[in-house]
Amino acid sequence: MNKRNRLAFICTIAAVCTLFTTSAWAASANDKKTTVRQPVKTVQAKSSSASKKTTTAAKPVEESTDTVRIGIREGQGRVSLTSPQGLGIYRGESLWKKSAANVPVTVTLSGTDLAVNGTASKGSLRVRPLGKDGVVKITDGYTYRGDMELMKSPGRWGITVVNVLPVEQYLYGVVGKEMSPSWSEEALKAQAVAARTYAIAHKRRFSQRGFDLTDDTSSQVYAGVGGESPAVIKAVNATKGEILTYQGKPIDAFFFSTAGGWTENSENVWGTYIPYLRGVSDTSNKMPGYRWSVTTTPEKMETKLAAAGKGVGQIKSITLSPLAKRPMTEADRGVSGRVQSMVIHGTKGNVTVKGLAFQSIFGLRSTLFDFYSGKGTAPDPDTGKAVRKRDFTVKAGQPLTIYGFGWGHGLGMSQYGAYQMAQEHAGERDYYRKILTHYYTGTEIKKLY
Prior knowledge:
With 449 residues, the chain is an alpha+beta fold. It has ten helices and 25 strands. It has helices spanning 13-17, 24-29, 167-172, 175-178, 185-201, 230-238, 298-307, 355-362, 415-424, 432-439, and strands spanning 67-76, 78-82, 87-91, 94-99, 105-110, 113-116, 119-121, 125-129, 136-138, 143-144, 147-152, 159-166, 213-214, 242-246, 249-250, 255-256, 291-296, 315-319, 341-346, 349-354, 369-373, 391-393, 400-405, 413-414, 444-447. The strands form six sheets. A seven-stranded mixed β-sheet has the order 4-3-8-11-12-1-13. Strand 9 and strand 10 form a beta hairpin. The protein is elongated and about 75 Å long. The protein starts with 12 loop residues before the first helix and ends with a strand.
């Protein structure tokens, strides 16, 4: 996932809700599920020698820079855990109880306290495997490396379960869920660095809930040991500790499925200038999702607009600069050609529709779209030929095609673009570095630990 500097990010709720950050692999493997990741305040890189503080009843453990806390469950009344190596249950740093191999330990909520197999205990608990390199399994869920911390859910009823583990081991279970493990090594390395940067920059984002990151698309998809593969582990290990920085600080390393020829400037998506999120050329024309189209009718479009509170009666025309060769400079489109806004004219008046709103209303893959009437193949903007005028006439009863390029919000690294770049430079050592610095303008790759 994802995406982390807060350089005065100001987003409206509506914009965030319609912001699609689609992982290439998650999109293809999980019914094209979209990922929503939000920018956060940057954390300054710290030394990995930072010592760990012990757990207290008042707050969770403060982890070092190379450790991360992942929220696995919240608001649970009962949680059962087990391990092939047996489990140790700790209060603070002191071993309190043990369970034998493959024997479940059940933690329940007893008032505001936790109870282990019926015995109450004050404060949070740590559960860890007794054997070296062991794992902990939630009996109705995934298996995980590292420790499990259990606590009363802050500010709500129930138990919160947090997986506490080294960042590198966390990435083992992330990279293969955000990008296909079958992809080339250099693409996987690029994804590993982007995902690591995201994790470091977003530490403590959910601290009020007791953890750093979620295990779903609100942060980065994480499946524990079940998300691991040899190729992913190799890519993570090869880039150990490396993160992307701008002026010495971790960046918001956003990524998405495919750019459709050009990525976008941050101000054209969020309204705020971010120096390393600049529109750049994208080589993904041989990849799935590069081109797409949706055929509808003016009448269906009228109905959907009306349902969204943007009805204009019978649609007569649409004012929007035609999609042309990128980079573009028209005010109603971004540098990539992504639609900023357009005006729809109808028998009952006119309405201005933002590109993100139109994308949401019609379920489009991106805001990089245009229109044409009739049958045939959609125009190719990269030919440089004008295929229509700025005022596009809509004819009643005639098929209307919305055609477009790319999948996702268009900021940062295009995953399919990274894949195609790696394929076209097969055999070039450490090419992942060129991929990353291409998509994240003016950044440096630094080793954090």
